[in-house]
Design goal:
The complex is a heterodimer of chains A (410) and B (698).
Chain A lengths: L3 E2 L30 E10 L4 E9 L8 E7 H13 L18 H12 L6 H35 L7 H8 L11 H23 L5 H49 L5 H72 L3 H69 L1
Antiparallel strand pairs in A: 1-2, 2-3, 3-4
Chain B lengths: L1 H22 L2 H16 L1 H19 L4 H13 L3 H14 L3 H15 L7 H9 L2 H13 L1 H6 L3 H10 L3 H22 L4 H16 L1 H13 L1 H6 L8 H13 L2 H5 L5 H25 L4 H9 L6 H10 L3 E11 L6 E10 L8 E7 H15 L14 H9 L4 H23 L1 H4 L2 H8 L14 H19 L7 H51 L3 H80 L2 H77 L3
Classes of the chains: A alpha+beta (410), B mainly alpha (698).
Keywords (chain B): Acetylation, Cell projection, Endosome, Golgi apparatus, Membrane, Phosphoprotein, Protein transport, Transport
Protein name (chain B): Sorting nexin-1
Membrane topology (chain B): Peripheral membrane protein
C-alpha cells in the first residue's frame, strides 16, 4: 500500500505551527524568523513503516545548503527526542513531546477483512466500503504526518533546541541515521528508570517549594494533566460514537437505495431521494466527527503529552532542589565535623548552580507553555466552531432543499 | 315552487340517460360502473347508498318504464324476481302506508306469489300507473334528504350540505359519506325505529340465508364480479354487468358475498338497515317534500366519471374520525399490574352514538380486538393491521421497575404504536364497519379478552398453526395463473427483507446516537473540569462555554435518537408487521386455491367412479355417484368463486395497502427529516453563540 501525500496537509492539526508559519504568531519570545523552517513535504507509507521527507529551509551558517530534504522514519524522531531528554543541558526546558507511533494496524486489518469478504457483498457495497476504509487510512496517515511535523516545528522554534547538533544532523544527514529500536535490556532499564522516577516524583512532589510560582505551577500541572487526560479520553469516545452514527447513516442510505431501486413507483423514487440525502448528510456527519477529532481530540492529546513534558521539567527542577537541599545539609554537616568541607562546598555549588539554571529557564518555559497553550486552544476552538457551523449549515441546506423537493412531490 | 319545479327538472335530467339505457346503454354503464367501483373499494357503506340512489332515481324520473324494467329485471329474470321485490316491497308494505307505497306493494305481492316467473309487468305497471309526480317526488326526496330528516337531530345541517355544494363532486361525496353513515349507525341506537327494525329482520333474514333468494343473486354476482374486478381500471363496463351489480347491491345481498360467512350476521344487519331506512326515508320525505331535490337528483343523474382512486381519496379526506391514545396508567401492583390507556375518539361519523367519547383499554384488549378482526377478515384475504408485539421484557420492567427512563420510553413507544395500530384499523373502510371495532371504541365495560392474556395456551396453538401453515406453504405448489400476484408476492418478500435490514440499521443508529449523547455528556463534564483548572481566565471561560455547548448537544443527540426511534424505526417496525399481514392474505388466497384444486380432484375422482359404475353396469350405485358429482360440482363452483373473490379482495387490499404505505412513509420520513432539520438549526445556534467566546480567548 502506497499513499503519497503532498505538501498540502490542509486538514492536518496545525496547532502550534503558527509559531513558525502562521500569521497569528503570538509567541513573540519564540523565534519566528525564517532562519530555520522545517516541514514534512512528503510521506510514504510502506508495509510496516512510514517514511517522512523532512524538508528544511535555513539561512543558518552551519548547514551546507539553504534548502534540503532528507528521508526519516519514526524511530529517528524518537532518537532525536530521547537525545534531548538525556541531555543534561536541556534539563531546564520542556522537551517537545515525541510524536506517537504510527498505528495503521486497525485500519489495515479492516482492509484485509474487506478483501476476504469481497465475495459476500455486492460490487457497489464493496467499492463503497473500500473507499471508506481508504479514506480512514488516509486520515490516520495525515494525522501521523502532522504529529511528526509538529514535533519538528516545535524544536525548530525553540531558542535553544534549534541549535542542537543532533537536530542538525537529523535534518541534514542524507543517509540512514542507523538508529535502532531499543533492545529488551534497554527497555527493561527504561522501565525501571520510569518506576524509580515516578516513585521519586512522588517524593519530590511532596517537598514544599520555596518559590510560589513553581508551587502554583506544580499544583496546576498535576491537576491539569489529569483533567486533560480525562477530557482527551472522553473526546475520543464521543468522536468514536459520532463516527459509528455516521456509518449507520451510510448503511441506511444504501439500504434505502436498494429499496428504491426495486421498482419505479412513486414511493421508490421517494426512497431514492431520501437515500441520496442520507448519503450526503452522512458525509457531512463524518466530516464533523473527523474535524472534531482533528481540532479537539488531537489538541487535547497534544496537551496531554506536553503537560507531561512540563511535569517532567518540574520533576527535574524538584529533583535538583532536593539535591541542592541535601548538598546544603551535607555542607552543614561537613562544616560541623570540619571534614571534606571543600568537596561538600563544590558539590553544594554545583547543585545550586544546576538548580538555579533549571529554575531560571523553567520559569520562562512554563510561561511560554501557557502562552502557547492559550494560543493553540484559541486557534483550534475558533476553527472547530467555524467548521461545526459550516457543516451544520451545509446539512441544513441539504435538508431544506430535499424537504422542499419531497414536499413538492406529495 | 320548488316542489313543482323539481319533477320537471328531474324529468329533464333523466329522460336522456334513461332512454340511452334502453338503446345504447352507454350512459348507464358509465353511471353505474362508478358505483361498482365504490362497492369494491368502500365495501359496506357505499355499497348500499350509491347504487341504490342511482337505481331509484333514474327509473323513477323516467316516464316510460321500459328501461327501468330492464334495469331491475335483467338479473332477476335470470332466476326469479322475488328476492328483489322482497327487498323492495315487503318492508314498505309493513312499515308504511300511503298511495305510493301501496302502489309499490301490489306488485310485490304479485311477485311473491309467482316467484319463478319473471314477471315484468307488475313492476312496470306500478311505475307506469303511478302518477308521475307522485312517484318521482318521494323517490327523489328519499334519496337525498331522508337521513337528515329522519335520523339526524339537526336536519338543517344536513340539508344545507347538499345545497351548498353545487358541484356534482361535492354532492356525491356528501351523499356517499354522510347519509350513508347515517343509514348504518342510527338504526342501531334508535329505539323508536325498533318495530320496523324487527319487521325488517324478519323479512330479510331469508334474504341473507335462504338459497332461494340469495342464490340467484349471488349467481349474478359471482359470474360478474370477476369481470368487474379484473377490469377495475376500465370505467365503462358492459351494461349487463353493471346492472346486475347494481341490483345485487340494491338487494343488500352483495355485501354478504363480500363478507366472510362468520360475518354474515353483522352484514345482514347492515344490509337490512339500508332498505329499511330507505323505506323510512320515503315516508318521511313525502310530507316534507324537498327543497334539495334538484341538487341531488342532478348529482345522481350525472354519470360518475370518477376513478377508483379519486373516490378513495375523497373519502379519506372526508374521514371524520380521530383516535388518540393518551394517559397510560399503571393499574395494580406487582406482576398483576398492567397499563391502561385512554382511548379517545372524536368523530362526526354518525355511526357512533356521540361525537366524542373515551374508554379505557389495556394492552390485551388491543390484542383481543386484533384476534377478533383477524379471525373474521383474514379468511377473506383482508389485510388486518397487526398490533404491536407483546414484550415481556418491557412490561416486566414497567411492572417491577420504578419510574426510570427506559420503562417510560417503553410505555410511550407502546402507546404510540397502539395509537397507530388503532388508526390503521379505523382507517380501513371495511374494518371500521366491524361491530367489534365499534364496541372497542365505545363500550365502557369491555369483556376481558381471554386468550391473549398470556403467551400460554392460545399462543402456543397459534405457533403450531403457523408452523403447519408454513409447512403447507412449502408443499402447495401453485401454478399461478395471475402474474400480478406472483410478482407482488415477490415484491413484498423482497421489501420485507430490505425493511428488516433497514430496521436493524436504524436501531443501530438509535443505539449509537444514544451512546453519542451519553459520551457527549461525559465530555461536557470533563471539559467543564478542564476549564475550572485552566488558569488563563479567558480560556477557562471559553472552555466552560464549550462545556455548555456540549451539554446542549447531549440533549440534542438524545432528542434526535428519540426521533430516529419514534419517527423512523417504529415506522419500519410497523411495516414489517404489516407486511406479515400482507403475506398472510396472500397465503389465504393460496389456501382457497388449494381447496378449489382439491375439490376439483375430488370431482374428477367421482366422475371416474361414475364411469366405472356405468361400465360395470351397476345402476343401484349410479344414483349415489351422480349425486356426489352434483354435490362436488357445486363445491367446485363454490370454491372457485371463493378463490376469485379472495383474489379480488387481496388485489384490492394490496393496492390499498401500497397507497397507504406510500403515504405513511412520505409523511413519517418528512417528519423525520424535519426533526433532523431542527437539530441542525439548534446546532447552528449553539455554535454561533460559542464562536465569539472562542475568539475572545487571549
Amino acid at each position: 500500500m502506497h499513499v503519497v501525500l503532498c505538501q498540502g496537509l490542509d486538514d492536518g492539526p496545525d496547532f502550534l505551527s503558527e509559531e513558525d508559519r502562521g500569521p497569528r504568531a503570538v509567541n513573540v519570545d519564540l523565534q519566528t524568523d525564517a532562519t530555520l523552517q522545517v516541514d514534512i513535504s512528503d510521506a510514504l507509507s510502506e508495509r510496516d513503516k512510514v517514511k517522512f521527507t523532512v524538508h528544511t529551509k535555513s539561512t543558518l551558517p552551519n548547514f551546507k545548503q539553504n534548502e534540503f530534504s532528507v528521508v526519516r522514519q519514526h524511530e529517528e524522531f524518537i532518537w532525536l527526542h530521547d537525545s534531548f531528554v538525556e541531555n543534561e543541558e536541556y534539563a531546564g526546558y520542556i522537551i517537545p513531546p515525541a510524536p506517537p507511533r504510527p498505528d495503521f494496524d486497525a485500519s489495515r486489518e479492516k482492509l484485509q477483512k474487506l478483501g476476504e469478504g469481497e465475495g459476500s457483498m455486492t460490487k457497489e457495497e464493496f467499492t463503497k466500503m473500500k473507499q471508506e476504509l481508504e479514506a480512514e487510512y488516509l486520515a490516520i496517515f495525515k494525522k501521523t504526518v502532522a504529529m511528526h511535523e509538529v514535533f519538528l516545528c516545535r524544536v525548530a522554534a525553540h531558542p535553544v533546541l534549534r541549535k542542537d547538533l543532533n537536530f542538525h544532523v537529523f535534518l541534514e544527514y542524507n543517509q540512514d541515521l542507523s538508529v535502532r529500536g531499543k533492545n529488551k535490556r534497554e527497555k527493561m532499564e527504561d522501565f525501571f528508570k520510569n518506576v524509580v522516577k515516578s516513585a521519586d516524583g512522588v517524593l519530590v512532589a511532596g517537598v514544599k517549594d520555596v518559590d510560589d510560582f513553581f508551587e502554583h505551577e506544580k499544583t496546576f500541572l498535576l491537576e491539569y494533566h489529569n483533567r486533560v487526560k480525562d477530557a482527551s479520553a472522553k473526546s475520543d469516545r464521543m468522536i468514536r460514537s459520532h463516527k459509528s452514527a455516521a456509518d449507520d447513516i451510510n448503511r441506511i442510505a444504501s439500504t434505502l437505495y436498494t429499496l428504491g431501486t426495486q421498482d419505479s413507483t412513486d414511493v421508490c423514487k421517494f426512497f431514492l431521494k431520501v437515500s441520496e440525502l442520507f448519503e450526503k448528510t452522512r458525509k457531512i456527519e463524518a466530516r464533523v466527527a473527523a474535524d472534531e477529532d482533528l481540532k479537539l481530540a488531537d489538541l487535547l492529546k497534544y496537551y496531554l503529552r506536553e503537560s507531561q513534558a512540563a511535569k517532567d521539567l518540574l520533576y527535574r527542577r524538584g529533583r535538583a532542589l532536593v539535591d541542592y537541599e541535601n548538598a546544603n545539609k551535607a555542607l552543614d554537616r561537613a562544616r560541623a565535623k570540619n571534614k571534606d568541607v571543600l568537596q561538600a562546598e563544590t558539590s553544594q555549588q554545583v547543585c545550586c548552580q544546576k538548580f538555579e539554571k533549571i529554575s531560571e529557564s523553567a520559569k520562562q518555559e512554563l510561561i511560554d507553555f501557557k502562552t502557547r497553550r492559550v494560543a493553540a486552544f484559541r486557534k483550534n476552538l475558533v476553527e472547530l466552531a467555524e467548521l461545526e457551523l459550516k457543516h451544520a449549515k451545509g446539512n441544513l441546506q441539504l435538508l431544506q432543499s430535499c424537504l422542499g423537493v419531497l414536499k413538492g412531490d406529495t | 315552487m320548488l316542489f313543482l319545479d323539481n319533477p320537471l327538472e328531474i324529468k329533464m335530467d333523466h329522460s336522456l340517460p334513461a332512454s340511452d339505457i334502453a338503446s345504447s346503454t352507454k350512459p348507464l354503464s358509465e353511471a353505474s360502473s362508478a358505483p361498482v367501483m365504490d362497492i369494491l373499494s368502500e365495501p359496506a357503506s357505499e355499497a348500499f347508498s350509491a347504487p341504490m340512489m342511482n337505481l331509484l332515481m333514474e327509473p323513477a324520473s323516467e316516464t316510460s318504464s321500459a328501461p327501468m324494467v330492464d334495469l331491475l329485471m335483467e338479473p332477476a329474470s335470470e332466476t326469479s324476481s322475488a328476492p328483489m321485490m322482497n327487498l323492495f316491497m315487503e318492508p314498505a308494505s309493513e312499515a308504511s302506508s300511503g298511495p305510493m307505497v301501496d302502489l309499490l306493494m301490489d306488485p310485490a305481492s304479485d311477485d311473491l306469489k309467482e316467484p319463478p316467473k319473471p314477471d315484468i309487468n307488475p313492476l312496470a305497471d306500478i311505475i307506469n300507473d303511478a302518477p308521475l309526480s307522485e312517484v318521482k317526488t318521494p323517490v327523489a326526496a328519499m334519496t337525498q334528504e331522508p337521513p337528515s330528516d329522519l335520523f339526524d337531530d339537526e336536519p338543517s345541517e344536513l340539508f344545507a350540505e347538499p345545497r351548498q355544494s353545487n358541484t356534482a363532486k361535492q354532492q356525491q361525496t356528501s351523499i356517499f359519506d354522510e347519509p350513508d353513515e347515517d343509514l348504518f349507525s342510527e338504526p342501531l341506537g334508535e329505539a323508536l325505529k325498533k318495530p320496523q327494525n324487527d319487521v325488517f329482520k324478519e323479512a330479510l333474514a331469508p334474504v341473507a340465508k335462504a338459497s332461494n333468494v340469495c342464490g340467484p343473486l349471488s349467481d349474478n354476482y359471482n359470474e360478474d364480479p370477476t369481470d368487474i374486478f379484473t377490469e377495475e381500471a376500465i370505467t365503462t363496463l358492459p351494461s349487463a354487468v353493471s346492472t346486475v351489480s347494481v341490483n345485487s347491491k340494491t338487494n343488500g345481498v352483495h355485501s354478504d358475498e363480500e363478507e366472510p360467512d362468520i360475518f354474515a350476521e353483522a352484514t345482514v344487519e347492515l344490509s337490512l338497515d339500508s332498505p329499511r331506512n330507505d323505506r323510512k326515508k320515503k315516508e318521511a320525505a313525502k310530507p316534507s317534500a324537498s327543497a334539495s331535490a334538484p341538487s341531488v337528483s342532478a348529482s345522481a343523474s350525472k354519470p360518475q366519471p370518477k376513478t377508483l382512486e379519486e373516490l378513495d381519496e375523497e373519502i379519506e379526506d372526508k374521514f371524520e374520525l380521530n383516535i388518540s391514545i393518551t394517559n397510560p396508567e399503571k393499574v395494580g401492583d406487582g406482576m398483576n399490574a398492567y397499563m391502561a390507556y385512554k382511548v379517545s375518539t372524536q368523530t362526526t361519523l354518525p355511526m357512533f352514538r356521540s361525537k366524542t367519547f373515551t374508554v379505557r383499554r389495556r394492552f390485551s384488549d388491543f390484542l383481543g380486538l386484533y384476534e377478533k378482526l383477524s379471525d373474521k377478515h383474514t379468511l377473506n384475504g383482508y389485510i388486518v393491521p397487526p398490533p404491536p408485539e407483546k414484550s415481556i421484557m418491557g412490561m416486566t420492567k414497567v411492572k417491577v421497575g420504578k419510574e426510570d427512563n427506559s420503562s417510560a420510553e417503553f410505555v410511550e413507544r407502546r402507546r404510540a404504536a397502539l395509537e397507530r395500530y388503532l388508526q390503521r384499523v379505523v382507517f380501513h373502510p371495511s374494518l371500521l364497519q366491524d361491530p367489534d371495532v365499534r364496541e372497542f371504541l365505545e363500550r365502557d365495560d369491555m369483556p376481558r379478552a381471554h386468550n391473549t392474556q398470556a403467551l400460554s395456551g392460545a399462543g402456543f396453538l397459534k405457533m403450531i398453526n403457523r408452523a403447519t401453515d408454513s409447512l403447507s406453504k412449502m408443499t402447495i405448489k401453485m401454478n399461478e395463473s395471475d402474474v400480478w400476484f406472483e410478482e407482488k408476492l415477490q415484491e413484498v418478500e423482497a421489501e420485507d427483507q430490505q425493511l428488516r435490514k433497514l430496521h436493524i440499521m436504524v436501531d443501530s443508529l438509535v443505539g449509537h446516537r444514544k451512546e453519542l449523547s451519553v459520551n457527549t455528556g461525559g465530555f461536557a463534564k470533563s471539559v467543564a473540569m478542564l476549564g475550572s483548572s485552566e488558569d488563563n481566565t479567558a480560556l477557562s471561560r471559553a472552555l466552560s462555554q464549550l462545556a455548555e455547548v456540549e451539554d446542549k448537544m447531549e440533549q440534542l443527540h438524545q432528542e434526535q435518537a428519540a426521533s430516529d426511534s419514534f419517527c423512523f424505526a417504529e415506522l419500519l417496525a410497523d411495516y414489517i408487521r404489516l407486511l406479515g399481514s400482507v403475506r398472510a392474505s396472500f397465503d389465504q388466497r393460496m389456501k382457497t386455491w388449494q381447496r378449489w384444486q382439491d375439490a376439483q380432484n375430488m370431482l374428477q375422482k367421482k366422475r371416474e367412479t361414475e364411469a366405472k359404475l356405468l361400465w360395470a353396469n351397476k345402476p343401484d350405485k349410479l344414483q349415489q355417484a351422480k349425486d356426489d358429482i352434483t354435490e362436488w360440482e357445486a363445491k367446485v363452483t363454490q370454491y372457485e368463486r371463493d378463490f376469485d373473490r379472495v383474489s379480488a379482495t387481496v388485489r384490492k387490499e394490496v393496492l390499498r395497502f401500497e397507497k397507504e404505505k406510500a403515504r405513511d412513509f412520505k409523511k413519517q420520513i418528512i417528519k423525520y427529516l424535519e426533526s433532523l432539520l431542527q437539530s441542525q438549526q439548534q446546532l447552528i445556534k449553539y455554535w454561533e453563540a460559542f464562536l465569539p467566546e472562542a475568539k475572545a480567548i487571549a
